[in-house]
Amino acid sequence: MVKVVVSNAKGLVQEAGNGVDVQNDLNINGTVTMSGSDNRFPGDVRFFSGSDGTRVQYGVPNTAEAGTEALLAAAVKHGIVDCTPGAARDKATDTAANFISGLGLDQVGDTFDFYFINKSTTALRRVVLTAGSNVTLVGNMVIPPNSGSDKWSASSAHFRIRRSGANACHLYRLC
Hints:
175 residues; mainly beta; eight-stranded mixed beta sheet; three-stranded mixed beta sheet; 6% helix
């Protein structure tokens, strides 16, 4: 297969390799159809708006371990993480270095949004995110279960990871 590269400098060029590499803005007017064998996108779909915008990526939701295992960048990159804890759990985040490399936060200011859903229906089985190395937490990191007195609390949370330095990230709870 031939790789197609589109750039302002050279225009449309065929090279050795696979895929399409658009090195400048891509404007699409009309319908884009992608299909895989299971009627899902064959890979992740990513929308970027530059180093001062939000990275949005849609993929298959990832189920986090129900124990105290860390919340890894590999799970977060799917955009939705769900967890059904067997008890109240504290979960450390991955390290800032792993978030930066695993989520493609190439420049200071790059961001990545994801959702965490606590699927427990048992009272008191909350999940609390704690900071991994060089990660600063901002906001309420408690995600309550969807049960009992917590039934009407937000058992899901929207987070934004922002690269804040060469080897540092902030994790914000947005809602």
